[in-house]
DNA sequence: TTCGTCATGTAATGGGTTACATGATTAC
DNA sequence: GTAATCATGTAACCCATTACATGACGAA
């Protein structure tokens, strides 16, 4: 049971690890901080929270009324329900963080995984980045061959769409290349200690993300 | 009834307009020509085809056995089922093509709409392109403000993710700008006849897509 | 006092996948 | 003769949305 979505569960646990929140706020964070990718509705979020509570990964805390009001009482005054990560929940999240299987670099998952790279160990980060890159590269390969095979049968618009799509993927590959490179550089210069560890090292924090992307192009001009 | 998906229905009708096909082939075209965006499974495609037949927009033709074998007979020899667009289906597709409402430029729909721009009238093309552009621009606006509001609370990775996401959107906007520009140029130089027409002009074909993107960057090097 | 936003939920529905079941045709 | 791919379908499930219902709180 509780084969709940994965991605939402992951994101919720990750956000709650930073600080307790109630559902409404959680949803906003989901759609801004991590957002761009996915906008979850309450109809998804609240049932998910319930399930996480049922699993013992979260606890509900009713702010305001300290003890005796059950919070879920119908018709009684409704209180905000603040969700807090339990130790078991934290453990579970770290367990999830340590996985780097194929599903970690598929389209839907990759973004969220990346968003929590700050909490992820360096070697898992590397595996996920490289996994995604090779995923994209094989996709590129497929696009290229299918493009040359069907070349003449497609009109200009379809062709242009194809071209733009390929360029987008190529662009993401370049992005990944830069990230991987700076991850590699970061490891070399700062951490030979955590090198050959394979068991999930819970307590030890990652040590802070490397300052990747030397020549940042964030400048808000344009 | 038949509030089937929209996007699949649209793509199927569009592909079958070019030439009759059976389901299997249809699906491959869906995932290559138009693909990149969406991969439909048979569990989606075949029921959809049945529904389109029920609507009178397609007819099934059994290749091989000309007349008396019902094709859907169980245990009988199974024949390929070729689907062909009916006149009603063609009419319906053109009706769909002429719509340029907000759902035409949302993420899921835009790609498919664009793929059939070859069959779309120039003014609808313009509306869709401009609609998408302003959609993306308002999204950019939201991202920018949410970025400056929460700036310091985000770690490097989240920030980088955000930055890359914004850059992707900006890139698509630039792409749209080019397309819109060349559409505009194309209209000026070739067709003052179809200018101020607002009713959907069914019969009249578009007259062929303009050779947009003068300096093509398709070169397969790199 | 009303409007907007905060806040929590549920039931119906939608749109799609996975896994399964079946069989024909082609290439080796 | 057997493996791969072509080819068609169904049932069970999954994830999420929509629309709805409820209500608190602050500002105009």
TrEMBL record, chains A, B:
It comes from the Bacteria. Pfam families: PadR. Keywords: Coiled coil. Gene3D superfamilies: Winged helix-like DNA-binding domain superfamily/Winged helix DNA-binding domain. Residues 183-222 are annotated as: Disordered. Residues 183-202 have a biased composition (Basic and acidic residues). Residues 12-95 form the Transcription regulator PadR N-terminal domain. InterPro entries: Metal_resp_DNA-bind_regulator, Tscrpt_reg_PadR_N, WH-like_DNA-bd_sf, WH_DNA-bd_sf. Residues 126-160 form a coiled coil. SUPFAM superfamilies: Winged helix' DNA-binding domain (SSF46785). PANTHER family: CONSERVED PROTEIN (PTHR33169:SF26), PADR-FAMILY TRANSCRIPTIONAL REGULATOR (PTHR33169). This is PadR family transcriptional regulator. It comes from Streptomyces yunnanensis.
